[in-house]
Amino acid sequence: MGRDRRNERGDPQWTKWIKAHHALPAWKALSFPARDAYFHLRVRCFAESKNAVNNNGEIYRSLRKLAEDMGCTPKTAGAALADLQAKGWIVCTQAWERGMAGKGKAAHFRLTMLPTAKRPATKEPELWEQGHDYPVTVYRAYLPKSSCREANLKKQDPPPRSVTPLCPNGAQLKVVSP
């Protein structure tokens, strides 16, 4: 008796790694959760339909589901999406809606490095410069405060030198000979 291929799953989902995109300063400035979130969104760009057509511009994932995929909290996932918007990797095409009785809608995004069915890729990350972030339209509340971010970037001063001797009051260990 042979295998029943009708019940087997198809190929695993994957996305192309483009080395030139990851050499951009906008990629290097992303946090690690934002990089992971980008790959989850990029896989979903072709995964939503059976024929693997490009649905860029209509990619959606709720914060809870994205956090579940990434293995983190929804707050970290929201910060990752906000960071991706600030660096120009994604653009919100439709904001999220709070629904009645659990019927809300997640935000829809467009990946700027990929073309859509109606327009070519806009490639905002290639134009991004340090300190000149793009506006964040959704999940802005999840962005870290700039003062906290700047405080984390500063190097900590070394601890002050202590004038206390290593063994106070001259109480040093003596070697007792047998």
Report on this model:
This protein has 178 residues and is mainly alpha-helical. It is 28% helix and 6% strand. The chain has five helices and three strands. The chain has helices spanning 25-28, 32-47, 63-70, 74-87, 146-153, and strands at 59-60, 90-94, 108-111. Strands 1-3-2 form a three-stranded antiparallel sheet. Helix 2 (32-47) packs across helix 4 (74-87) and helix 3 packs across helix 4. The protein is globular and about 90 Å long. The N and C termini lie far apart (84 Å). The model is unreliable at 147-151 (pLDDT under 50).
Order of helices and strands: HHEHHEEH
Low-confidence stretches: 147-151
Count of DSSP H/I helices: 5
Strand residue percentage:
5-15%
Q: What structural category do the secondary elements indicate?
A: mainly alpha
Principal-axis shape equals: globular
Number of strands: 3
The percentage helix is 25-40%
Please give the order of strands in the largest beta sheet.
1-3-2
